[in-house]
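User: Predict the structure for this protein chain, please.
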Amino acid sequence: MPVDPTSYRPDPRYLDLGVEGFADPVAPADFPERVLRFRNQRWAERVGLGALSPGEWLEHFARFAPLPHNLPEPLALRYHGHQFQAYNPQIGDGRGFLYAQLREPAVGGGPGRLLDLGTKGSGRTPHSRDGDGRLTLKGAVREILATEMLEALGVPTSKTFSVIETGEKLQRHDEPSPTRSAVLVRLSWSHIRFGTFQRHAFEKRTDRIGALVEHCLATYYPEVDVGDDAPLALFRALRPRMAELGARWMAAGFVHGVLNTDNMCVTGESFDYGPWRFLPRFDPTFTAAYFDQGGLYAYGRQIQTLGWNLARLAEALHPASPSAPWQETLEAFQGEAERALARAFLGRFGLEEADPETNASTTGAIFGFLTARRELPFQQLFHDWYGGELSAARAAESPYAALYEGRDYQAFRDALAKHTPKASVAATLASLPFQRARPVDVLIGEVEELWSRIDEVDDWSPLEWKVEDIRRLGAALRQPSGHTWPSSHVVDS
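Assistant: Here is the predicted structure, written as structure tokens:
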């Protein structure tokens, strides 16, 4: 197998936990067809798998033959979780499994980050219940678009690594059926979820909670000074990452849709995209899931929901550290989220932070302007800012020039003027994605159009062009390549 020995670095670290109690060995489905539809070559090269031939790609990401020196068989992970805030002990990896683990290239002399290759739609497992263990091709296409756009906008997210159409016809109640099927492979920092701890707390297995805490600290937080309270150390390390994640969703105009505790991972990375949306226009009540009738996971409630989920994680960790100051530690999340929100929105405008009071004032001015100008498409504001449309010389050229005037607009401009532009902004302003009238966006209407071309005439070229366009946006915004967190925002020990 032609793996790159300099960058393919297998490390099946999950086996250190021992499979008993944490996972179930499973066999992948035997699909009737295997047609490659999406291959993330840039990430494949990054992890040493870029030289795989088309046949080898299918062998590993449709038949799931083990990668060299990696997991000998797939593992369906065990977890519970709160789903729409109701506890469910009947869940787990029902249509996916952990397939392999490998190291990202080292940065700064370290060992390199451990990454997982996990699946979606790979067949039934002991946790499937009444499900068929499959994924619709439309669902896979939607996940491609979500992960590519979030990566471009600087949100720490899983990467869609591979999509292979599998030749089955699926019945679904929420889309026209029968519909086409696929198996997706995602590259993630971790698949260990809040719900993993919840399961062991539910089963009163404090020993397993302790083992999981030690594993997560050693694997994902080696820089943390654990002290004499490992569960509390893990929670304190994760908490600011969750604040940062929620803030970046908000600045990206992204609505996840299903913020259950089994969709929260211990590294604070966004993953598992079922129903999702990008905001058409600023609206705190906007929801992504048609079944979220009460707006529990609305755009404006996402950070609040992450705080609620963190409280559930604290409850699960409590048996392993009953005397820890959990409530006090939880209360720090709100302040971290407020600071992260200012940082994220300033980052979208290419501006440096100032003092905390100024940052908070600017955040208020941004939200005030967005509220007053709700007819303005959300992504358009940032696009016009980078494209120079908000300057006096070019204001008339913007399709929304009439909205860039008035007292609230001036307050918005005055607030941004208190911040220094980042050094990279000059290059961003001159880049191709901002030299046009409309922004790069991924609204539901376009998603449906892209799917229609695939479903009706098997034309994948519009999706390919869209992915290229999104990646040009990411390059223009100079987003860091990799699963990165600003070190100053990660650990609060």
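The chain is about 40% helix and 10% strand.
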